[in-house]
Amino acid sequence: MEDLARRIAEADGYVMVSPEYNHSMSPALGHLLNHFGSSLYSWKPSAIATYSAGQWGGARAAVNMRTFLSELGCLPVSAMIHVPKAQEVWDEAGGYAPGVDGARWDGYLGRTFSQLVWWAEAARRQRAEGAAERSAAFTRDPAQRNAP
Ligand SMILES: Cc1cc2nc3c(=O)[nH]c(=O)nc-3n(C[C@H](O)[C@H](O)[C@H](O)COP(=O)(O)O)c2cc1C
Question: What's the gap in Å between 19 CA and the centre of ligand 1?
């Protein structure tokens, strides 16, 4: 877990991949993210990528991932990836399944990834230049950020 914490802290951005479980993100992913807390993720962007076996591609999970990831401090970029019937898009080795239009999928995925890279590079520069201006994370109690 310490090794994972270090890798999360070192990253400039995150691709948050989740299946849809009961119209929500994977409980396992939520549990993992909660374990570390916002200080490791904040001031960085994230991209939401969801999938499901059904026709909506995890779009409903993605809606609540936006609020979750925003609270964690790694703001999601506007473009999102949703993969309906994921079992028909990729094969077990991670390549496109026979008959799938891979170039079209690459373009769809690339839109989100290009936004993520743009924001990750911008945020990295800003973290390096404006470290002293960042608002402090609460250190004892969430009440530290209450309105007066
Ligand atoms: C408890 C549970 C809840 C699920 N809820 C949804 C759902 O709300 N919407 C949906 O499209 N698929 C749902 N599914 C189907 C999953 O999207 C599908 O099983 C998917 O393959 C899970 O990804 P995984 O195999 O990587 O865990 C659910 C599956 C399980 C086991």
Answer: 6
Of all protein residues, whose CA lies closest to atom 22 belonging to ligand 1?
Answer: 19
22 Cβ inside 6 Å of ligand 1: yes
- Give per-residue pLDDT as tens, 119-146: 999 999 999 987 655 666 667 787 877 8
Q: How far apart, in whole angstroms, are the C-alpha atoms of residue 83 and residue 89?
A: 8
Q: Give the domain extent around 107.
A: 2-141
pLDDT in tens, 42-67: 999 999 999 999 999 999 999 999 99
- Which tokens go with 86? 């994921």
Please answer whether residues 17 and 81 qualify as being in contact, where contact means their C-beta atoms are separated by less than 8 angstroms: no
Name the closest-CA residue to atom 16, ligand 1: 52
Residue 128 maps to which CATH number?
Answer: 3.40.50.360
Which among 76, 31, 78, 80 has a CA at the least distance from the CA of 57?
80
